[in-house]
Design a protein that fits this description.
UDP N-Acetylglucosamine Acyltransferase, domain 1; globular; 10-stranded mixed β-sheet; 13-stranded mixed β-sheet; alpha/beta
């Protein structure tokens, strides 16, 4: 509950987060959403709410365990660790008619907190081993649908022949990508779409046979370019003839790991000399946040890939998400959701829900499909008017639900960290089926084991690895030409050796199809395991945080004089007066330009 609330202005209030104890502001827009969903205003700040929702999402930690369905004894791949006291079914058994969610129905007990009763339901109802729908030869994928011949793809849909990627869509023959769409034969590409035969690229569109690009559109045969459009045969933003370009490209030789590392360092320094747009927002009207496409009225949101409209405090949506507040990880037709995560496939009016599809008018429910009018349900399919998986008539349901809401306020749940959870709050992290460090919360809000336990989260010590390493770190041949097919039989030590905080697997293999891919792109083999490579991609992104910033255009050049403007700007020779919200810390050396100054230089 709020420890302190004082009037900040007629349209906003200042509150203290009951989780981190920091003060935050509830704007008029926040309060409007609370009124719309008929609940008290949130009592946790944006970061703590997002962290709590993320603590229910294990994307990429995979285990072997036995199927718990009656008559099944086979070992299967699962996102649930083998010691978890849960009923885990393989996908065929879970989707079968051999069990019914209503058989686990419980009467509501007004002598106990709601979330305590809900946790018991989580432990009783069967769970799918993986959330990997309609896949073909893509067993090692999770939070995905309609993938073919994919391996270790997480949160990405409609892909073919892709590996080690997260949130990649409609792509084929890609490796190590993050947040990409309609890419082909691309490697280490982030926040980009429609790339062909490209690698080491961030925030680009419609580029071909290029490498090391940042914020570029319509480039072909370019290397090391920043803020360019519709060009070819350029290196470090300089124009070359086709013949000169091919000669320079051969000299760079990205098939040599040493030369590749050297170029990466040069490119990272080169990027610092150019202005960045204050935020990555395109084809969008009235937006505050970062990495937002094709959207309208978006406030304090990140990674919104539209169409999207009227969102506040939302992270990561794809393909139609509207009229929602404090949500994350969803899309494909979602409207009117509040404090929910992993909502997809035509859902409407969901409150405090997780992993729902084709469902409407539900609250505090988890992993339900094709249902409506649910409260506190788990694993139901094609049901309506249910509470704690027990069937009611419409009249009984509508009479009981208001009483439960009132009871959640009168007898709240207090977690191990002392945080109070009432009606209107998302599920306590303590009842998550995953340990904190198994979830994406650890990726975005990293904690040590000690800090996690102090804060009331659960923790799982990483399994001890006993790989028989055949190529120690630093002894992998640096040149691709020196790599033979025998490499696919080797166990390569990760360069981090398990000493990082990135979930390092300590060792990895190069699969035959992977080796073919590196040869097609003529690029050196990686020296980090897939987990560490994923962590490296996340670390390179701007944080899910906004600062109050101002344009760093000083008139004829950037304020630090590293960049000389190429066009006249609206503000003339003096500094630009524009201010904005930006994910780039104003104290950093990043040259952030406002929309007008940026467009004058890049367009």
């Amino acid at each position: 509950m709020e420890k302190e609330t004082k009037t900040h202005s007629p349209s906003s209030v200042s509150a203290t987060c009951q989780s981190c104890q920091k003060e935050f502001t509830l704007t008029a827009g926040d309060l409007e959403f609370s009124e719309r969903f008929k609940t008290r205003p949130v009592t946790w700040c944006f970061d703590c709410r997002l962290q709590r929702r993320m603590s229910f999402r294990n994307e990429n930690k995979l285990y072997k365990r036995k199927c718990d369905a009656p008559g099944h004894t086979e070992e299967m791949l699962s996102i649930y660790a083998p010691e978890k006291p849960l009923n885990i079914y393989d996908q065929k058994a879970w989707w079968s008619d051999s069990w019914e969610g209503l058989q686990f129905g419980k009467n509501y007990d007004f002598n106990r907190p709601f979330f305590e009763q809900f946790q018991e339901l989580i432990k009783a109802v069967p769970w799918m081993s993986l959330f990997n729908m309609n896949s073909t030869n893509s067993d090692y994928c999770n939070m995905t649908t309609d993938n073919k011949d994919c391996y270790l793809v997480f949160g990405g849909d409609y892909n073919e022949n892709c590996m080690y990627s997260t949130f990649n869509f409609y792509s084929r023959d890609c490796l190590d990508n993050y947040m990409t769409n309609e890419n082909e034969l691309s490697y280490e590409v982030k926040n980009s779409r429609s790339q062909y035969k490209c690698m080491f690229i961030n925030w680009a569109k419609d580029c071909t046979e290029s490498a090391f690009l940042d914020d570029c559109t319509g480039l072909s045969n370019c290397i090391g370019c920043v803020n360019m459009k519709n060009a070819q045969y350029c290196i470090f933003n300089e124009q070359y003839s086709k013949e000169e370009y091919e000669q320079k490209k051969a000299e760079l030789d990205f098939s040599d790991a040493n030369k590749l590392a050297e170029f990466k360092q040069k490119f990272n320094e080169f990027k610092k000399k150019f202005p960045k747009k204050y935020a990555d927002i395109i084809r969008t009207e009235d937006a505050v946040g970062n990495r937002i496409n094709d959207a309208k009225n978006i406030q304090n949101c990140f990674d919104i890939f539209g169409p999207a409209e009227n969102l506040r405090d939302v992270f990561l949506t794809f393909n139609t998400y509207k009229d929602s507040y404090s949500c994350s990880h969803g899309g494909h037709g979602v409207e009117e959701c509040y404090e929910s995560t992993a909502i997809f496939g035509n859902c409407q009016r969901l409150f405090g829900c997780i992993l729902m599809s084709s469902t409407h008018d539900a609250a505090y429910s988890y992993n339900c499909r094709g249902s409506s009018n649910l409260f506190g349900c788990v694993g139901l399919r094609d049901k309506q008017y249910c509470i704690l998986n027990k069937q009611y008539t419409k009249e009984e349901y509508e009479e009981l639900v208001p009483k439960i809401k009132a009871h959640m306020d009168q007898m709240p749940y207090t977690d191990a960290g002392g945080r109070v959870h009432q009606y209107g709050d998302f599920f306590p992290s303590q009842i998550s089926p995953f340990a904190y460090n198994e979830t994406v919360a650890q990726e975005y809000f990293p904690l040590t084991k000690e800090d996690a336990i102090i804060k009331g989260f659960t923790w799982r010590d990483q399994d001890v690895k006993s790989y028989q390493i055949t190529i120690p770190s630093g002894q992998l041949p640096p040149k691709l030409s020196e790599i033979t097919d025998e490499i696919t039989k080797e166990v390569i030590e990760c360069a981090h050796k398990g000493e990082c905080q990135d979930g390092c697997s300590t060792a990895f293999r190069i699969l035959p199809q992977e080796l073919t891919f590196y040869r097609r792109l003529n690029v050196a083999l990686p020296t980090l395991c897939p987990s560490c490579r994923h962590a490296s991609r996340l670390a390179s992104l701007a944080p899910l945080k906004l600062f109050a910033g101002k344009c760093k255009c000083g008139g004829a050049s950037s304020e630090n004089s590293l960049y000389k403007n190429t066009a006249s700007h609206f503000h003339g020779a003096g500094p630009c007066p524009n201010e904005f919200k930006t994910p780039y810390d104003p104290a950093s050396d990043t040259i952030t330009y406002c929309e007008q100054c940026y467009q004058a230089e890049v367009a």
